[in-house]
Amino acid sequence: MSEDSGPGDAILPGARDVPTAVVRTGSSFSLVWLIPIVAILIGGWIAWRAISEQGPTITISFKSAEGLEAGQTKVRYKDLQVGMVASIELAEDLSHVIVTAELKPNAERYLTENSRFWVVRPQISAGRVTGLGTLFSGSYIAIDPVREGEPQRAFVGLETQPVMTASEPGRIFTLRSSQLGSLDVGAPVYYRRIQVGEVASYEMDASGDFVTTQVFVRAPHDQRVRANTRFWDASGLDVTLDAEGVRVEMASFVSMLIGGIAFDLLGGEDPGGPVTPDKVFTLFESQRASEQPVYALKERYLLHFPNSVQGLAPGSPVVFRGIRIGRVVDLRLQFDWENYGVVVPVVIEIEPERIETVDSDARADVDRIARLVAKGLRAQLGRGNLLTGGLQVEFDVHPDVELIPILLGGVYPELPTIPGPFDEITSSVSGVIAKIDRMPLAQIGSDLQAALVELRLTLAETRKMAAAVNADVMPALAATMERLDGTIGSLERMLRPDAPLPLELRKSLEDVGEAARSVRVLAEYLEQHPEALIRGKK
Amino acid sequence: MSEPAITARSLSMATCHDCGLLVRLPGGAAAALVCPRCGAAVHSRKAGALTRGWALVLAAAVLYIPANIFPIMTVTSLGTSQSDTILSGVIYLLKHEWPLAVVVFVASVLVPLLKLTALTYLLLSVQVGWRWRPADRTRLYRITEAIGRWSMVDIYVVTILVALVRLGELASVRAEAGAVFFGAVVVLTIFAAESFDPRLIWDRIAEQERAGGQHE
What we know:
heterodimer; A: alpha+beta; eight-stranded mixed β-sheet; 10 helices; 27 strands; B: 216 residues; alpha+beta; two-stranded antiparallel sheet; 7 strands; elongated
């Protein structure tokens, strides 16, 4: 045991007996540094992975952040999570909220200007309940990705779920109507009573005159819509009361409650070509209305009727020989305070295309109407609907009316009118009554009585005369008749062909003929030889 | 100035950890020594205390970042999943049960940070050789070592919840990456505190006093 003396010797008495530890050589590198190295490697790898796996960040603006929570709400596509909402902030003008969402790395492909975002919440609309699952799992943001388009990072979110996504095959058509009716987004679109699509959206036109509705028709039914297809509003009930009776029509119970649109071709009409992208269909109010041919040209004219227009209203038909060519647009009352005259100006609207022209493409425009007026085209009021007592304006060419030309220069050209057949009957009846009134019936009555008395006397006389004639005149008359008979018999005998009288008559005639011939010869000779008169014949 | 304190090291002696033999230390204390009687390693001070301390503190600090960034656990109830990090859990608890929030904050945020800060300070102080309040520093070390284990409260909560709440979509808890990192941080700080030798605090002072004394 080696002993080293050290400072401990002084303190511990037996310290020099303390053995000495043995030196053991070894490496000086401490393995403990592996731990921080590994920790740094792990941290570095995590950081690198987080940075490289970071997907694009987008902003979506919504009207409200209802149901959205930063760090919780997910962005989903086909129920697969593709992102998460990172933060939600109010916009500066406090009109909407801006949602910042981070998406998965490969989401860049479908973040284009055509992609759409909306919040899926429990919703009841158009007779359907959607999004019930979000009651449990919380609302989420759905994306409708569209690959085509410019890349975009700032989006405006939709407030309602779109009716169809870009990936659903089908086509959108634009319809126009004067009012929305009872339609709503999601209302069904029917073809032959089968639902083939939905109403996607609607908006009022800038001028406020009509409503434009977009409907989505699923494939393959969108092929059935051609250029001449008619769309009509199949909402509610359709009750028609006309000469054929009462008719009630309804597309479906659903459409009665929430509205619906139906489309079809007119029976027998050519479907027309494929639908162009800018084609706007008219949405008719009912199936009936859709079956009316539609004309684009409309021309307005002014008429003045002096008589009562009771039964005439805007919408009353304008007919030409029984065929409807237009309708009444407006009618007012004009009172001339100076002459105390009343006149009713009526504005009518004619669709000139309804008047087909034979042999040419000429249309019934103002010039031609003027010419017709010169030929006698006149308007008159006639009995329209027997059931309701409504009037209609009837046009016809009357050849024997006085010449009144068409009046141009006002707001509308003015066409001349004549009293209607009703008025004519009235006036002629009143004329007849006036004539009857004028007849001196009392005088005639008394004259007639006197004449009757005379007649009776005359008849009595005549009877007497007749009796006398019978008694006296008749026998003499009979004797005269007999004599006449005998005379006629002698005459007949005389004039028989073999009677002597005719034979002698003939002979005499022949002699006379001979003599005449001789005289003629003499005359001819004398003409050539006038000296024979003096000298005689040689 | 009081007399320099007497430590075993100052007498160049040490005891064997396994058999208790008092042995003399040859030369410097940097070499690896074994007991002549039983062959166990003889250390005057914990081997590589500073080295190991720095390494472990560094590792714990590096891993503390993902421990806070990644969620600790995901709670699914009635179909709704909610992932929470330590801080977001604290904030959530603040709204509902603020005493719990205080507990979680202290155990999961305050304690690890304090430990890391304290260990860094102690290591730095020993490395550089400060003489500031050695008694307080030693006390600080004791506190650090004692409270280290309480950081595991958060991990215990996560493990118990994961094991007990297993009702499928109705209610379930799942541990996430943050829990792993946080557990690593706590373990590493425990090891770091364990590896630090507080005697080094006094050694430095004693060395300086001796050096100062010798110069006098």
